Amino acid sequence: MRVIGLISGTSVDGIDAAIADIEGTTATDLRVTVLGGTTVAYDPTLRERVLAACAGHPLTLPELAALDDAIAATFAAAAHTLTTTYGAVDLIGSHGQTVFHRPPNGRVGGLGYSLQLGRGEVIARLTGCTTASNFRAADIAAGGEGAPLVPPVDGVLLRHPTRDRCVQNLGGIGNVTVLPARDRDQPIRGWDTGPSNSLIDLAVQHFSDGTQSYDHNGEWAAQGSPCLPLVETWMTHPYFEQTPPKSTGRELFGWDFFARCLRDAEPYALSAADMLATLTEFTAVSIASEYRRFLPRLPNEVLLCGGGSRNAYLRSRIQAHLPDTTITTTDEAGVPADLKEAIAFAVLAYWRYHNLPGNLPSVTGARQAVCLGDLHWP
Ligand SMILES: Nc1ncnc2c1ncn2[C@@H]1O[C@H](COP(=O)(O)OP(=O)(O)O)[C@@H](O)[C@H]1O
Ligand SMILES: [Mg+2]
Question: Which end of the chain, N or C, is more open, meaning fewer C-beta atoms within 10 Å of its C-beta?
Fold first, then answer.
C-alpha cells in the first residue's frame, strides 16, 4: 500500500511529508520502503497565526474554524507535492498541527487534552484520498499522554538485535524512544525529554531582530560559551523531576520560559552567542540527565533525528555529556532523519486502516493498546 505521512511539529517551520510503500499485516512483519519526501514551509502569515494560537492568544470560534481549514489546505498541498512526483497514493496519515497540549493531571476524570488543527476531512476532500487524522485522541481517552506516538514505529524500523539504542528526536521539543536490544526482551519506552530547538529558535529570532529563525548548524552558539550556573538553575524545572510517562510542548518551554531565561541571564551580561551556547547546553544537559535518571543503563548508541540533528554544535554538546555513547543520526541506520516523524504517521495511518493498535501503553501510560486515528473518505 502506498501511503503519505504528514506532520508539522512544535517548531511550526513547515509540513514534513513522506511517501512510502508499506507491506505486512502486523507490527512484527512490517516492511516500509521510503520513496521520498519534502518539507513545505508555512506561508509566513499563516505561521504567525499558528504561533499566536500556540501562545494562547484569544481566538474567536470563526477564526478557529478558518485557521483549522487553512492548515488543512497547507497539509493537502504538501501531499499534492508528493503525488505530483510519485503519482496517486492509497492513504494519507496526517498528524496535523498541535496548538495546545495538556497532559493528564492524575485526578479522576483528569484526562489529557491535545488539539491538532488541519482536520483530516478537509485533507481527504482536497486530495481525493482516504485520510487518517486525530491520532492522539484515542490514547488520551484510554488515560494516556497521547504522546509520543512515534516509538512503536521506531521499534519496527530501528531496534537493534544486540545494542541498546535511544532514538532522540530534536524538534522544537525533544523526545526519546528507548529501544533495548532485541535480545533483552524489555519494553520500548519513550517520553518528551524537554526543550530541543524551541528556546534556541526564540533566542535567534530575538537577537537577530526577527531576521533569522534558527541557528544554522549551531554556528552562532559555537562562538559563545555556556553559562553553567544558568543551566543548573533551569534544570531545577519541575518537568525534569517528573517520572515518565510524560509529555510537554510550547506550553512549558515556549515564549514564557524564554522570557524567564532572558531575565535570569541579566546579571551575567551574556553576549548573544553566550546566550545561544547556554540554551543549547540546556538542551544537551537535559537530554543526558533524563537518560541518567530514567534509564537502567546508558544506551550504546543514540540516533538523532529531526531538524536539530543538523545542529553540529548541539550534537557535539550531547556527545560531550554522553562520552561513552556513539552519537549518529537515523540516516546512518537507513531512516532519513528529516522524514522519520512523517514516515511514522504513514505507518500509524496504515495500522489504523488495518485496525491494528498504534499506541504503546509502556510509552504513553494508556490503560491498553488501542487503534489510533479517525478515517475520512473523500
Ligand atoms: N541546519 C540546521 N542547523 C540547526 N538547526 C536546524 C537546522 N535545520 C533545522 N534546524 C532546527 O530544526 C527545527 C525544525 O525541526 P523539526 O524536526 O521540523 O521540528 P518540529 O518537529 O518541531 O517541527 C528548526 O526550527 C531549527 O531549529
Ligand atoms: Mg518541523
Answer: C
